[in-house]
Amino acid sequence: MTEIDPEQNVAPGEPHSNILSETTAYVIGLALALGLTAVSFWVASTSSLWGPGVAVGLVVLAIAQMGVHLVFFLHITSGPDNTNNVLALAFGVLVVFLVMIGTIWIMGHMNDNMMPGPEITNLQMQH
Amino acid sequence: MLGKLSWDAIPFHDPIPLITSLVVILAVLGIGIWVWRKGYWPALYHGYITSTDHKKIGIMYIVLALLMLVRGFADAIMMRLQQSLAIGASQGYLPPEHYNQIFSAHGTIMIFFVAMPFVIGFMNFVVPLQLGVRDVAFPTMNNVSFWLTASGALLINLSLFIGEFARTGWLAYPPLSELEFSPGVGVDYYLVALQISGVGTVLTAVNFVTTILKTRAPGMSYLRMPVFCWTSLAANLIILAAFPVLTVTLALLMLDRYMGFHFFTNDGGGNSMLYMNLIWVWGHPEVYILVLPAFGIYSEVAATFSGKPLFGYRSMVFATMVICIVSLMVWLHHFFTMGAGANINAIFGIASMIIGIPTGVKIYNWLFTMYGGRVRFTVPMYYLIGFMLTFVGGGLTGVLLAIPPVDFVVHNSLFLVAHFHHVIIGGVVFALMAGYTYWFPKAFGFTLDERLGKMIFWCWFIGFHLAFMPLYVLGLWGGTRRMQHISDPSWAPWLNVALLGAVIIGVGIVLTVVQLLYSIKTREQRLDVTGDPWDGRTLEWLTLSPPPHYNFAVLPDVHGEEAYWIRKQTAIKQDALIDEPDYQPIEMPIDTPTGVICAFFASLCGFAVIWHIWWLAILGLVGAFAVFVWYAWQDEHEHIIPVEEVRANARERRRIRMEHLHSLSQST
């Protein structure tokens, strides 16, 4: 009874030769994706979580959601013939990180060299 | 019915655009009639317009780039003339609203429709040949990419005849480019043309990243690829990262202008600084999209004409990939003066200077490739040496500009204008001219005239220095860029020297046309019979000139760096070619009008969006989608080249090569 069917013995996201097992993988992915979506709605509306923790929870769920999509629908695996995909993903993540963090940082600093605001320059306020 | 379009859009009262329009329309009609009378139309249609052959598409890109170079240069010489005339009391011959359109069109055309198609044209022509394969990964998409680029070029040039072009500079900074300050169609022409050609560019990048990663000849591992393939890979990766940002930025500005959004407006919570930030997230990597393939061309030229393998191949690859990543981290240096704090300016300034290090590595590699080599001073070699002398200077003024306190003094000045022309003409244009001379025989089977080629080089080299060195001086004196009128008469001598330089470059461009016509006329004297006119080292010189549609009868087996050089040396040593392989029938993609029809509908849609003709815009979109669906339902995408034809062609090539081999062994 210990014999494992090679059809079933594939990592999630790897291509299947059997349409049935492929469908199963997609169904698992769909169920996980829907589950994570439902949980994030629940997290946002519940009062059983500590208030400031809600945002953290949503970020964690969002990252998990991305993971599910990558593995089950976009077929990113750690297999040897998947190096290009993993590298492409890493490059994409790097670019998104640079553009987003860079933009937030730059726009946050935009007024550093501007004239100070009226509350400092208005001498009449200083009695 | 026709939106904003009316007879007022035609410039009846402006003699310059009106006469230009008439001349261009007559020229296009004349060429059309000539092609039809000579019976070349079917050859043009099947051989080029609908072709899925990467070599033909590459040639079309370069023809487009050369045509647009003439347009962009016409703008340049008009600006130089205006600045030389409009000094002191004189107002020159161009009113401000016309002058502003000219400098905007000059920048937009030179970057998007000269440099980009020229570089992409070389990638198309050379990369599959150097990788030892028969085509790119997606041949039909390649044709679509070209025609979408051409559609963008068409719309930009249409703005000369119908309506007006943007008066906002080549990056259309808001709030000036917002509806409130630019109510005309000029900015819309800019936005729509770049959106359409941008789609073409992204598709090209998808195509070439896939081609380089997935389709290489047997044995062509990553570290055996020629440097031009590496630099093309890096450039296409940057396109994939940066061009979507451009698309989104321009789309946000379109939402502002068309639907009353407030992303970049002065009111309603908009922030125009965000546009500067986003446009340079694309804009700085764009510089490297252009210059990395140029570095690739120099590497091929240096190795071939020094008769030596490229010095430091691996360091070259490493430097290329470092530039690929770091180029995405320096964009703030384009707006140091916009109000950011000292920390952020310092970090981006240092990152900008760091890019100089891998670039310096490359310069030394080319120098050491020449050192101890048997250098042949051909035209491409002139460009390589001219480039090294020029580009190092441009790089040094770049390091100056990367120091934020210096930038506060010279930003937006003629010093900046001189700097970026220094690196783009000295770096990119010289490479494009070198590549044009180097690969021309591969494309057409005969070399270009050497004497005229050297004259063209001297025109570019001397003309560039005369045109832009005075601008450095004027910039340090406080000369601002984009001035329609000069109030200080003491600048006149410098501006006149700059005009002289532009005229000399103009002579070079005219000589390029003369060289082409003269070389076609006297081609019998310079036929490239062997397919290897320069004693090359990479696989494109293995096949005949011009190569057959399928490039290689059998995919070459690669046994090390410089695949073709090893093979050639083995053949010379053994005085024999490799054994005749077993030829097979070859499957090649069929020609398709998908690209040109798709671009026709895209142009229609773009024109309609510019003029607010909404029914036509919907028609264009539906048409483009219908072409896509029609293509998807086609059953046949390939045709078979019979084995007899392949074998006959391959035997003919072997016979030529054997003769060449015997003549070599007799001479030694």
UniProtKB/TrEMBL annotation, chain A:
Belongs to the cytochrome c oxidase bacterial subunit 4 family. PANTHER family: CYTOCHROME BO(3) UBIQUINOL OXIDASE SUBUNIT 4. The chain crosses the membrane at residues 25-44, 50-74, 86-108. It comes from Sphingomonas caseinilyticus. Heterooctamer of two A chains, two B chains, two C chains and two D chains. Cytochrome bo(3) ubiquinol terminal oxidase is the component of the aerobic respiratory chain of E.coli that predominates when cells are grown at high aeration. Has proton pump activity across the membrane in addition to electron transfer, pumping 2 protons/electron. It is a multi-pass membrane protein. InterPro entries: Cyt_c_oxidase_su4_prok, Cyt_o_ubiqinol_oxidase_su4, Cytochrome_c_oxidase_bac_sub4. It is found in: Cell membrane. Pfam families: COX4_pro. Keywords: Cell membrane, Electron transport, Membrane, Oxidoreductase, Transmembrane, Transmembrane helix, Transport. This is Cytochrome bo(3) ubiquinol oxidase subunit 4.
UniProtKB/TrEMBL annotation, chain B:
It comes from the Bacteria. Residues 35-559 form the Cytochrome oxidase subunit I profile domain. Keywords: Cell membrane, Copper, Electron transport, Heme, Iron, Membrane, Metal-binding, Respiratory chain, Transmembrane, Transmembrane helix, Transport. Its main location: membrane. Gene3D superfamilies: Cytochrome c oxidase-like, subunit I domain. It is a multi-pass membrane protein. It is found in: Cell membrane. The chain crosses the membrane at residues 16-36, 57-74, 103-126, 146-170, 190-213, 233-255, 275-298, 310-332, 344-368, 380-403, 415-440, 452-474, 494-518, 613-633. Belongs to the heme-copper respiratory oxidase family. This is Cbb3-type cytochrome c oxidase subunit I. It comes from Sphingomonas caseinilyticus.
